[in-house]
Amino acid sequence: MNNYPFQQQGSPSSDEIEVRRLYQQLLDSWNRRDADAFASSFAEDAHVIGFDGSQMAGQAEISSTLRQIFADHPTGTYVSKVRDVRLLSPGVALLRAVVGMVPHGRSDIEPALNAHQTLVAIRQDDRWRITLFQNTPAQFHGRLDLVQQLTEELRQLLA
Questions:
Q1: CA 33 from centroid of its chain's CA atoms
Q2: What does the alpha-carbon distance between residue 130 and residue 64 come to, in Å, rounded to a whole number?
Q3: Residue of 78, 80, 77, 52 lying closest to 65 (CA atoms)
Q4: What is the DSSP track for 70-121?
Q5: Angstrom distance (rounded) from CA 92 to CA 75
Q6: Is 45 exposed, middle or buried (0-12, 13-18, 19+ CB in 10 A)?
Q7: pLDDT digit of tens for each residue in the chain (159 aa)?
Q8: End-to-end Cα separation, the chain, in angstroms
Q9: Would you say the pTM of this structure is higher than 0.70?
């Protein structure tokens, strides 16, 4: 049974490919602990809702907050799988993904850090930028089988 009915079939458009690339650049910049590169993926007036519910508004705050996080905490590395990219209208796209995180100094995904990530991207100045990014814990309260299923799916990406 497919738990993710919104997966698209067929060949992705060039816009869908660019939005996927934008998302991958975002995660790559996190994994490199590069706050400025992370923030540069966003529109000037973008919003971020973090894993813990914290919020950031605008490129400057995103960069500043991430710089502080990277300075104060040994962050983990994201492993991701895009579930769906939809063009909502010309110049507006929605991307949904699942992620796992390998904590700093470890080699396996920590299931408690699995998340669903959603971003809305807009085309500005002939370039895709994120206008909203939300990172929601995938805790599946009381449904350990779903936690295990997602963790195993993400572990396959480590190989």
A1: 15
A2: 17
A3: 52
A4: HHHS---EEEEEEEEEEEEETTEEEEEEEEEEE-TT-SS--GGG-EEEEEEE
A5: 31
A6: exposed
A7: 334 334 455 677 899 999 999 999 999 999 999 999 999 999 999 999 999 999 999 999 999 999 999 999 999 999 999 999 999 999 999 999 999 999 999 999 999 999 999 999 999 989 999 999 999 999 999 899 999 999 999 999 997
A8: 24
A9: yes
Q: Tokens 């939809």 correspond to what residue?
A: 86
CA distance 100 to 103: 10
Tell me the residue length of the chain. 159
Q: With contact defined as beta carbons under 8 Å apart, do 101 and 95 qualify?
A: no
Residue 42 token pair: 């966003």
